[in-house]
Amino acid sequence: MLPSTLEQRLRIAGEALRQAVAELDPDRLTPGEAGRLLESFDQVVRTAATGSTLLARRVEDGEEWRRAGYRSAADFLAARTGSSLGAARRKVDTSKALKDLPQTRREMAQGTLSPEQAETIAGAAKANPRAERRLLQKAKTANLNELRDEALKAKAEADRSAADRHARLHRARRVRRYTDGEGARHLDICGTVDEVSKIEAELDRRLGALIRRRPAGQPLESRDAMAFDAMVAMAARSQQADQPGAPPSGRRQPAPQHLALLRLDISALWRGYVEGDELCEVAGLGPIPVEVARRLLGDAVLKLVITKGDAVAHVTSLTRGPTQAMRYALLWTSPTCTAEGCTRTILEHDHRYGAEYTHTRHTRLDELDRVCHTHHDLHTHHRWALVAGTGKRPMVPPEDPRHPAHPPRGPAATESPPLAAAASRSDIDQPASGRDPKRQAPSIGADLAATIDEALMRRARAVHQRINATGRQARLDLA
């Protein structure tokens, strides 16, 4: 398809802009020149953001994002533009709102609104169109935080009554969790005043108790830091309360909560710190010190890692679903959706193309992938499949030449047989009555083999023997 006139003009403008940036040398400019150029570049950014925002709703109207295997247009835009999923969702919502807000759209086209200002005004004006003009005037004199406060007031004005406002806020209640690039975990809570105040009241009570119990002469930390400690104490108390028959002293250790998410090399656990490429992390959240991992571990985890630490990739199950040991191994190797570009953590177990349970009547670890519901549905109902290999990789439609249904080309064709051929080998393709549920399959997935190798298992057994020899006091100092 030939590019339209608008596309050609954008390409010419983009090339001119790239050339200008390539010739830019800030050190050769005076501060005044730098300030004027900065404003010019910002004007370009605002104009480009306006065009991108206006187009977002039309992208959602099309089918390209569905054909590409994305759950929503926002997912598609986030992947294509390199933005976060939340930012892509807000862009689509703003684009829809601008359809009925011509005045805001004109201001955006003139470059007088930043993307953040436009998003704030469009969201509020969609709920309260009468506030659009007022918000546009506010944007000319106020900073972004003041504009957001005014937008929230405009939304509240649109509610017919306080009860309607309370119901709207209750429907929008949420708890969002994420890990930043530094590895810190964040928790964002939003809800109605009466509901959140219950959490705050308990938090303040425990915060006061922490302050009163501090040793004499110990300087106070910041209130925010101590409030965090109080929240951790709330969670610990709740865990103890959930243990039936736990003594009031709270000495009984709660059941381990991180069994399926803790990724820890046994050699690092024994040594007390990691070396080289060893791992000690909560899968999907980030690395933690070994001493923290030791506190998270309980007897049940120690038993799993050591006494049940056989190579689970060698086990074949005759049921459709994976065994518990397989689930733990899959959580280790695939904390997020296996489909490339997808970071969802609510996942399902999917048999690979050519190794579906209806054909093989068995479940093997090296024939499973963890994928989100959207990608599982694409595989099950639309014959999409992950390309051959392990780890993160693209999921492609049936007509894609990388689809495993197509014969491999080039040198890779001789490296390994297709899964369907592997599934028909005589050592596992036997009548159901003659199979041994614990029979070992002849191959191991490459990722898992690198993680749970034979040397690691020998070390694990040695550690277990030492624990049995020295009694309960030698539990790798986990207590």
Care to describe what's here?
A hairpin with a 5-residue loop joins β1 and β2 (185-190). The strands form five sheets. This protein has a three-stranded antiparallel sheet. A two-stranded antiparallel ribbon has the order 1-2. The longest helix has 31 residues, at 31-61. With 479 residues, it is mainly alpha-helical. It has helices spanning 5-22, 31-61, 64-67, 73-81, 85-98, 102-109, 115-127, 132-141, 144-158, 162-171, 193-213, 223-241, 266-271, 290-296, 299-306, 324-333, 357-360, 373-382, 419-423, 446-451, 454-470; strands spanning 174-179, 185-190, 262-264, 280-282, 286-287, 316-317, 348-351, 363-364, 368-371, 385-386, 395-396. It folds into four domains: 5-158, no CATH class; 192-241, no CATH class; 262-309 and 457-470, no CATH class; 312-451, no CATH class. The protein is built from 21 helices and eleven strands.
Number of domains: 4
Distance between the termini: 68 Å
Share of helix among residues?
40-55%
- Give the amount of beta strand, in percent: 5-15%
Q: How many beta strands in the DSSP annotation?
A: 11
Strand arrangement in the largest pleated sheet:
3-4-5
Judged by helices, strands and strand pairing, the structural class is: mainly alpha
Shape assignment: globular
Mean pLDDT score, rounded? 76
Unreliable runs: 249-260, 299-313, 412-457, 470-479
Main β-sheet, in a few words?
3 strands, antiparallel
The tally of helices reads 21
Structural Rg: 29 Å
